[in-house]
Design goal:
Elements lengths: L1 H7 L4 H22 L8 H31 L3 H8 L5 E10 L8 H10 L1 E14 L10 E5 L4 E9 L6 H7 L13 E10 L8 H13 L3 H4 L7 E9 L1
Parallel strand pairs: 1-2, 1-5, 2-4, 5-6
Antiparallel strand pairs: 3-4
Length: 241
């Protein structure tokens, strides 16, 4: 409450602190009245809450570390286009979409595909999904398409926190922005990370093992975004946490 009063409502400390004292007084009264119940079975929901809180913070911290490790493995996109793309011997017809969350960096799936398979599609689309702090985003504002160079494009799709992501429908909207994509004839390249717990700084190793287990059992992004499974190619990358 105090943070909202100070940061969102721009109240001065002289106004916010008295309200903070009032709320703390009420909360401490409730806490004192129920504290004796902790040793009479009240510890059970506290233990459950602590366990769930630990899982949630482990997931959040693990995702931040994973994102940082992927940045370390990635190349700047401009460097990839200028130095690697000219060395690729052939470009196949059609479009390839590479899911990415890091602007300005080359997705691992794209880098691995160009390095090992020595082939790229005619059109390369770097596809990012962003969630806005509003319930719904109208279709007129959902898609933003930007051309880079050498048939490379970036597509950013915006959803509200109550919208249900549906990538094929979003791709149809790209036609209104000068980028023609046919979902039934397009290949989606998705990176799939194999995580290895290490003693590197960032998180306790036991939490890294928990995060690795949670990641293996998490819902796949392709299922969540309703991407047709017969149009998906997964390219694996080993990541040391």
């Amino acid at each position: 409450t105090y943070i909202v009063m100070r940061k969102r409502w721009n109240w001065s400390p002289l106004v916010a602190v008295p309200f903070l004292v009032i709320f703390l007084t009420i909360d401490m009264a409730f806490f004192g009245a129920n504290a004796l119940k902790i040793f009479d079975g009240g510890f059970v929901p506290l233990v459950i809450a602590a366990f769930i809180f630990s899982l949630m913070t482990t997931w959040k911290k693990g995702r931040l570390i994973l994102s940082e490790r992927l940045r370390e493995l990635s190349l700047p996109l401009e460097k990839f286009i200028d130095e690697f793309v000219p060395q690729v011997p052939r470009r196949t017809p059609g479009s390839a979409i590479f899911m990415t969350a890091n602007f300005g960096l080359t997705p691992q799936a794209l880098l691995q595909n160009a390095t090992h398979n020595q082939v790229l599609h005619e059109n390369i689309v770097l596809f990012t999904i962003a969630t806005k702090p509003i319930p719904h985003v109208p279709d007129s504002e959902r898609v933003k398409v930007s051309a880079i160079k050498d048939s490379f494009f970036t597509v950013v799709v915006h959803y509200g926190f109550m919208d249900t992501p549906h990538v094929p429908d979003a791709l149809q909207l790209c036609n209104n922005h000068g980028l023609r994509i046919e979902p039934d004839k397009t290949i989606f390249f998705v990176g799939r990370e194999t995580l290895i717990a290490t003693h590197r700084p960032g998180m306790a190793i036991w939490r890294e093992h928990i995060f690795t287990f949670m990641s293996r059992n998490a819902q796949r992004a392709t299922d969540y975004f309703q991407i047709p499974s017969n149009r998906v190619v997964e390219i694996g990358t080993v990541v040391e946490l």
